[in-house]
Amino acid sequence: MKLWGGRFATAESKLMEDFNSSLSFDKTLYKQDIAGSVAHVKMLSKCGILKKDEEYLILSALEEILQQIESGSLTIEGSYEDIHSFIEAKLTEILADIGKKLHTARSRNDQVAVDMKLYAKEKSNEIIIDVQRLIKVLKELGQKHSNVIMPGYTHMQRAQVITFKYHLLAYVSMLERDARRLHNAMDILDESPLGCCALAGTTYSIDREFTANALGFSKPVNNFLDGVSDRDYLIELLSAFSIIMMHLSRLCEELILWSTKEFNFVQISDQFATGSSIMPQKKNPDAAELIRGKTGRVYGSLISLLTTMKSLPLAYNKDMQEDKEPFFDSVDTVQASLKVMAEMLKTLKVNRNHMKEAVKMGFLNATEVADYLVLKGLPFRDAHSLVGKIVLYCEENQKAIEELNLEELNQFSNYFDETIYDYIEYENSLDKGIKKEMK
After folding, report:
1. Which CATH number fits domain 363-438: 3.40.50.1860, 3.60.20.10, 1.10.40.30, 1.20.1250.20?
2. Active-site residue 21, yes or no?
């Protein structure tokens, strides 16, 4: 069934029909399409455009179609152009001419726009829940290992001592911003395009406030042209998805590094690792690697839609059909990645002794030594230079700074006394720094 064709003298090429069809992927929107139609029919009845008995019949038939799809007794397939024509065709099979009245005062342009907004809102809320669950897992994992010390890094070099908990809380902060970005994007998109029709509204006296309220939107869009051609909300959500994946990818990179024998800070559970087909000893962190890899996939979706939209004139153009597959795929990818990450972290084993040993061998209290000298009256730049010489001495003699006796320290400066050892003890450094920050 074609929703158009009256002005065409020649049938559509089969090649063009296949190329043009979006049913294979926009069938994802069947619930949103039926919800939009239900609101539209109720509005048409309220405004006297449909009779009450027609409203009842159409709503009943739409509910029947929804139940059949969800029960599996009706499969979304066939030579239909899209999900909109599929549902309208099934409605017309049930109600004949009454079914043909569904599309009064509506275009596929505002129909697909409202479907996509409803879908985007639903999936964004689901992803926010997934983000919050991951935040909970990170907090619980950190609390479980709250006293585990480890090196903090800059330039991938050991820098200062931190706790494993504090490291994980950095990702909590990132994910909390991610949730706020999604909330903000939903606030912006929360305007109903239903009633814009093709691009300039309709001559029927309709009630756009009614349909906006019925569908859970805060208001109707202000401009019809913008309402049917706006895909900013999808681009903004894809941007937020990309940032989420970037954060997950950063954590994955650390888990991958930490699980190597060179670091041996953590062990990823067998449940989220695989082996080698040739090397029996191998245990590969594939879950983390896949999340890291899928990040590029979500980036690609963002760039794809930005490129599609970059030079389109107003209003709707068929190019916009290309918004759906990358957005649907990104939703699936982000949700799967968040769920896998949460479960992988739940089963993560932390090797506290290896982390502590890395702290001891990394001169991670060198900054505290410099601070100590400053408090004793030495200018910071002089203290910085002096401690650099102490570190060099330690490397040559294979000692940690705290292992140097007072006589060795006094070779470099007479500012040192017995109080230096308490000052640079790792737990004391934490008490003066991040532990105080965390209280």
Report:
1. 1.10.40.30
2. no
